[in-house]
Design goal:
Mean pLDDT: 89
Number of helices: 2
Strand order of the largest sheet: 8-1-2-11-10-9
Strand content: 35-45%
Structural class: alpha+beta
Distance between the termini: 58 Å
Order of helices and strands: EEEEEEEEEHEEH
Number of strands: 11
Shape: globular
Radius of gyration: 16 Å
Helix content: 10-25%
């Protein structure tokens, strides 16, 4: 029996990307983001959801896409990593798809330098890069984010 993998597909400009469904918590309309001092450049700030502070990533930077103004129809994918919940700013969320596992090509087989991509799949609409949230931040970026969030928590406790 073929093993199917469920993915949430989304767009950044004309690029199609995906996350495994199990990592996705919810999809929301873009909301106001509060800047987070001393966070790595990839972190545009934080949002609060049900009392939880969630860092917001600008993943356009990871894929060398030009910066652009946030639009009212942009969306955020709230997703879970092993360490924390994060929000990814995306242009649009497209579909939830099921694809046979054997149709997913490991990123290393195509381009070994795609360190933030776990795999690639071909669809009727073209190639889709499957995003790897666990390897999204470098070790220094992860450390900087932890320190920025800790500083925020200390400041809140002092108020």
């Amino acid at each position: 029996m073929k093993r199917l993998r469920k993915l949430v597909t989304f767009s950044l400009d004309d690029r199609k990307l995906a996350l495994y469904v199990f990592a996705v918590q919810r999809i929301i309309r873009v909301v106001e983001v509060t800047p987070l001092p001393k966070a790595p450049d990839i972190v545009v700030g934080i949002i609060s959801m049900k009392g939880t502070v969630i860092p917001v990533f600008n993943i356009r930077m990871r894929f060398q896409l030009p910066a652009r103004e946030v639009r009212l129809d942009d969306q955020m994918i709230i997703a879970n990593t092993a360490k924390r919940t994060v929000a990814l700013m995306v242009d649009s969320v497209n579909d939830v798809i099921e694809i046979p596992e054997e149709k997913i090509i490991a990123a290393e087989q195509i381009l070994p330098e795609l360190e933030y991509v776990e795999g690639v799949m071909k669809t009727e609409g073209g190639m889709v890069l499957i995003h790897d949230l666990e390897r999204f931040l470098s070790v220094p970026e992860e450390k900087a984010l932890d320190e920025a969030l800790e500083a925020l928590n200390r400041d809140e406790r002092q108020d």
